[in-house]
Design a protein that fits this description.
homodimer, alpha+beta, seven-stranded antiparallel beta sheet, four-stranded antiparallel beta sheet, 11 helices, globular
């Protein structure tokens, strides 16, 4: 194991508190996030840990069972080094600091070997995980499918008849799970009038534009046209997860938050309730509005690493878990292959390397659950990056994961 | 004990679910509450149990301790009768049904003798309690005063300097606790441009009016003028509680929700977190934005009934609790004396009869914590009345409380 003797990084981003964000009674107006800027720097340093203070929400209840106890076997990985995307040698400690980390957890063989909080995050703090929500919803679909409720290969309009006039009418759950429908949805973050911005407005994450009436998430879905054949290839579009949630709710008659509570959150030994943001119609933002504590994300990830088992029961069918990392038939091309040449997208999970089968739940601004069954290593990182996507940060996170996995394997 | 053999009331109000409110994926547009109507019938049947789905909120954390176990000694009080305000003889069961009850709990000598849920409320459901929040905040002030943090008789501008130019500059905590400041605030519910409506808009409970910029709760406070001498007489004005909260936050540097968690909620054995709605500046709506479960309201009330003690410790000073029911020097006149000729308002509590010393936390739309130390009876009622104030409903609740107290005393 390689170690370095380096000074602490000087590139420590300021915490929300150091910047005075939402400090004071009342905070100065320019230190209060608005609907225009809450998820952008510097406000996201505060917002991602305080989503309930900004939006209406709905609980994903943990239930009455005991929290899963994570054994601890803490190890000093701070001095471990890896080669960063900029060519420099970084320590894990510096990387965590520089990459706007709020919470970071590593588990090896089911034991926590590293748990670290920055930016005033604490073990009880719920943190927005953006598109990590997609992987949760995907797994829920797997459980409902296993219960016989959701056949994967029938046209979606059979579940939700009003889809008949939009691009999703003849797409299947299987295609949408893999984000292979032929529906047009432009995933441009922060761009006025993009499809993504329409969803942000509908979900209450952005202010209305001019006089345009605010529609709901589902109204937006109904406007999306088909632009190519379904099932041809992967194209990352957040809205596909909202379609999954709609199908699950309509089929069961139960809201997404309660489905997730019943089927997943209450069965993995979560310690705290999670929660989703909701739109005016009560629709949970399935594609990215979920919040939970660092350890509860880890409990979810560990269940996946353990083949779908937690607390002595099969929470998610083992075959479904296997499909989430079986990327051979789901390998993607550019631009996705730039960062992961052997990557794939399967069942709402990012497979980093189809040969190895390590896979990830990921969200913009630096959210990550990295599951490596072969090495029995789980890594969770919650962040408040200063931009939606930062390619070097993504590369560094992957390099750090590899270095950590290798170091742990040697022990 | 008088009993009647009567048919169930035919005047059962429809539940939220029966009216289809927020049912369906998505619910029909006319079944979705809006900012204009969420607290009015029929929508409040749903909203008061689902505040988190409508507004940004902040937790009042219960802490890590065990929940206070309420022993149970259930008794059948359903057939108990009393004379209603309309002259008819009512059973407790019919009264509960007709008066839009969501949750109802009676404790006698510290044991639950009746606990009843309607309108799909459940033991885990948080319920908005409107101005019951005032009594919680008042008690918090008592604790902070006891800690030496808040002298009661200094001008408020010494705590919050920006109050200097508004009506509150020279009022004292003592005066504001008893709602005896001389500040003008028109407590008209649902009336456009009233002071109350300005607070509703600032706190996010109502949509903005026209082009008027939305200010925060505290901006509104700063606009209120003095209209008479401080300390002359009681006049119920919600805003006074928001002033208390501002002083407490500024003096301690800690947000209201955390103060209440630290000093009260974590010490009474609450089973669930409570929460407040917050405005854009993160200000908790101290005068009426609190939510908790029926049993947790009961735990709070029982602590008061027990002279400020809970879990073997003095949570609130006994002298402060005594002051909350000592109305002799706080007796009020009309219109308040219409319903309570011997009534008073002291330290953010309604004393029903100063000779008896039974006192209440109350909120519009039928929220009530009735504490009767002499009879060792605690009554909590959470409701979704079809109007802010319904005098006959108030009279019935008081008559029912008397009948229940007398019946229990005979046992």
């Amino acid at each position: 194991m390689q170690k370095a003797n380096v000074e602490p990084s000087s590139k420590r981003p300021a915490t929300a508190r150091e910047q005075g964000i939402m400090c004071g009674f009342p905070p100065p107006p320019d230190k209060q996030p608005t609907l225009e800027n809450w998820d952008l720097p510097p406000f996201n340093r505060w917002s991602f840990q305080n989503i309930r203070g900004l939006f209406p929400t709905t609980d994903v209840i943990r239930g009455a069972g005991a929290a899963r106890h994570f054994e601890r076997d803490l190890q000093d990985l701070n001095g471990l080094t890896f080669k960063g995307a900029d060519g420099s040698v970084k320590t894990v400690a510096d990387w965590l600091t520089e990459s706007y980390t709020d919470g970071f957890l590593v588990a090896h063989r089911g034991r926590v070997v590293l748990e670290h909080y920055l930016n005033d995050m604490a073990p009880e703090t719920p943190h927005l995980s953006q598109s990590v929500a997609k992987s949760l919803v995907g797994v829920l679909i797997g459980v409902l499918h296993d219960e016989g409720l959701l056949p994967l290969d029938v046209p979606l309009m059979e579940f939700v008849p009003e889809l008949v006039d939009c691009g999703y009418s003849r797409a299947t759950l299987s295609q949408v799970l893999d984000m292979q429908s032929g529906v047009r949805f432009v995933e441009d973050y922060g761009v006025p009038y993009s499809d993504m911005t329409r969803i942000d407005i509908a979900s209450g994450w952005r202010p209305p534009q001019g006089d345009r009436p605010v529609s709901s998430i589902r109204d937006v879905i109904l406007t999306l046209p088909q632009e190519r054949e379904h099932g041809l290839s992967f194209s990352y579009r957040s809205i596909e997860t909202d379609v999954l949630a709609w199908v699950a709710e309509r089929r069961t008659g139960v809201p997404l938050a309660r489905l997730l509570s019943d089927r997943i959150w209450s069965r993995i030994g979560a310690e705290h309730n999670g929660f989703f943001t909701v739109d005016r119609a009560g629709t949970a933002l399935a594609d990215g509005g979920f919040n939970a504590t660092l350890r509860d994300y880890a409990r979810f990830g560990q269940m996946m690493l353990d083949g779908g088992r937690a607390g002595g029961r099969q929470v998610v069918p083992a075959s479904w878990v296997a499909a989430c990392r079986d990327g051979e038939t789901h390998k993607f091309g550019e631009p996705y292959s730039n960062v992961a040449p052997q990557g794939a997208y399967s069942r709402q999970w990012w497979v980093h390397d189809v040969r190895r089968g390590n896979y990830m739940a990921r969200g913009v601004f630096g959210q990550l659950i990295h599951v490596d069954p072969e090495a029995e290593v789980l890594i969770v990182k919650l962040s408040s990056w200063p931009d939606y996507l930062i390619e070097n940060f993504t590369r560094d996170a992957l390099a750090a994961a590899t270095a950590i996995r290798q170091a742990l394997s040697e022990r």
